[in-house]
Each structure stands twice: as structure tokens, then as C-alpha cells.
Amino acid sequence: xEFLELPKRTSGNRTYGLTSIIxxxxxxxxxxxxxxxxxxxxxxxxxxxxxxxxxxxxKKKIDLxxxxxxxxxxxxxxxxxxxxxxxxxxxxxxxxxxGIECIEISNGTLNIPMQERLNIISQIKKDFHVIAEVGSKxxxxxxxxxxxxxxxxxxLEAGCDYVITEGRDSGTAGxxxxxxxxxxxxxxxxxxxxxxxxxxxxxPTPKHQMYFIKEIGANVNLGNVKLTDVLVLEAQRRGLRSExxxxxxxxxxxxx
Length: 256
Prior knowledge:
Belongs to the phosphosulfolactate synthase family. The chain has helices spanning 28-38, 58-67, 76-84, 88-98, 114-124, 145-157, 184-193, 206-216, 230-237; strands spanning 19-23, 44-47, 71-74, 102-105, 129-134, 162-165, 199-202, 222-226.
């Protein structure tokens, strides 16, 4: 229905306006059917937490994502598990063997010192696209806003393609309160000092997604999106749901 005037979306090999899904175990044949229809509105796919270790036909799944021009990567929890067991070299070899070109560096479970994370990034950024996550998975742990900003800036300056704001697949930690409410003061402060095109906001529910669309614009980067929600999200981005009904090009804060 091209006669409607809708907010413009980035397309093709997007560098912002990203939809990053979380794969929580979708069977490969089911995934193929989903991607056949919706691959054009999916940019990256995270094999959730450490589930890549127990995912059947993992290589087949990775190849399927790549066939549809979607960049697959493993959740940061797997990186932390490998770090904890001093198996990072083996992990990197495994990613190469699988044909995965992106890696997530996080400290959501472990408290990995910033300098240690920066050292790892400097060693691997020539071989991988690096995404770094900021924030803890512990809902009782609340970082000061200044610390969020400092970590993001350091990680981006170190060569990360993007930084991810921790939110978990439940939306109850990191940038969210225990009850799922968004720490809106934190978000507004972050986007004052950090280029929002370089931030992927974990937003696991349509409610969370609508907040970021209305706050930042149709082309905000969103992560931890469930496969079943990708069409809903795209409709929201285009002002085709009641909550984003009045979204217009002039209201999109991310210029095209």
C-alpha cells in the first residue's frame, strides 16, 4: 500500500534501524519458513545465552541465517562461560569454523574488568565484528548513569561496532526495573552523549519496543526481539499500530 505516507525505514545492509532477534531454539525447518517471509526485516540473530552449545544442527542454522543475509552470533553468556574456563582461543576457533563473523563481549554474569574486556577487543577486532554489552543481568545491581556512559564510550572507542544495553530476554534488568518498567531517565541521558545509531537497545516485548520507537524514532536499533514479533515491530516502526499511529518522518530523531 504505497499510497500511505509512512516513516521511512532504512533497508538493505542496514547500519542502523536494526532489528536483532533472539533465537531461543526455533527448529531449523520452522526457521526457514519464517525467514522466507520476514528475512528483509531482520538484520542480526543472536543464538540466545549459551544455547549454541546444545543447539542441534547449529552449523545448518548458521548457514541458513547467512543465506538470508542475516548476521548470526552467539549470546554473551557463552563468551563469559569461555572466559571463566579460560577457553577464549578455542571459542574463537569454533566461531571461525561455524562461519560466524560477529562476537558479543559481555559481563552480565561475571564481573570482567573493563581493561580486560578492552584487551580482548583489541586482539579480536581485526577478525570479528565486535558487539559489547553494557549492564548486569542482576536486577539488584544498578549502575550509575555516569558509569553506563563511560563504559559505552570506552567500548566504542576500542573498536566495537555497537554497544548493547542489557535488558535480558525478560526485560527485568539492566535498563529495566525489576517490574519491567524502563529506566527512562537513564535512556534520555545515554542518548544525549552517545550516538544512538551505535546503541542496540534490548527490547524483548512490543511495549518496550514502542517506548524506544516513540523516544528515538522509527530507525532505532532494537535487540532481543522474538521471532514471532518481527512483523509487529516493523508495523510499529511504520506507524501502523495505535501506539505509534502519529509517528511521522519529521518526528524521527535519527536522520536518514
